Input
Amino acid sequence: MRRGTFQWMKSMNKSIILNKIRTDAPISRAQIAKDTAITPPTVGSIVKELIEQGIVMESDVGESKGGRKPTMLMIDNEHFYIIGVDAGPETVDCVLADLSGVIVERTSQKLVLPITNNQFLKILKETIGAILKTFTVEMEKLVGIGIAMHGVVNVETGTSIYAPNLNLSNIPIKAELEKEFGIMAKVENDARAMALGESWFGNHGHVESMTAVNLGRGVGAGHVINGKLYHGATDIAGEIGHMMIDLQGEICECGNRGCLQTMVSGPAIVRRAKRALQLITQPEIESLTGQKVFQLACDGNKICDNILKETGTYIGIGLTNLIHMFNPGKIILSGGVTNAEAFILEPARQSIKQLALTSETAKTEVVISKLGGDATILGAVSLLLVELFDLE
Output
């Protein structure tokens, strides 16, 4: 057991009790003491402090088991708020959410390329400022700001090291926002943030190890192990879009050939569809989008049907490699490409069944996110929940 000061022990007990209330509410003080092996007086003292801080509140009394009815405890979700930001690559989307993930206000601003670091930071500040003006909230009730940023992020400094879709690098997001608003800011890669959001709000039950994969303009993933994000040695864990599948394949934006991203991203699907639909008139090919490919498949176009199913097979190959590396208990797929669930999901599952090393890994559960378009921004919100509930 780790040695530490009394203050550290008190903090550890506080975290244990707070998370017990979060996961098992409504719950009594006596039940908390029984389940955590923390003494009743300590539980009572810490609960009193949490109530005074506004994080915990007493609810209706529970059922009696022969004595006085116990007073139940639960998190006061509406006492504090978090700002969540999904930054780029086409818009900066911002929400204000309570501790249960309920979004009470949202706003958005478009990004026009090319853009500089200062212009990007200005839009970030304007969007956050707009939401604070729209929904009047006392600053002391704001836990902080969570930012989900695409590309490579230095989590410790809160710096966007490289944002390829914006062609920007070394953006001091955390420092600038904390200076502007005077509250904590946490910055995370968007796919990893999405994975954390799935862990908090995706209703996946207790899963010790889960992976969320974002399939959109790019491809990224996040791994959550026992409620904590896995970052890797240099903060690039989850860049499965640059997993090489075909050494003779297309050149990826990273410079390598045959990356998974060149096969299953939205733009990759459109490129393959354009090549396959050469008999269609030129204007129609040029205006082709991922949504149109999906609609053509729904309308019975066999070429587009096959392209989407082939995409599902490629996704399954990538997921099989991921399963062999991390062996997650569950994989959640999100992003615009998953709108074609009817065409891609079963081929992906079949690939895993055929390619997985063992019969058990072949059964790895693969599902589509139920959070829809809010998956990433709720992930940004969850960055501050981890901080509040002291899970790091």
Q: What stands out?
A: The first strand starts at residue 27 and ends at 28. The first helix runs from residue 6 to 24. The chain has three domains: 6-75, 81-197+376-388, 205-369. Residues 1-6 have pLDDT under 50 and may be disordered.
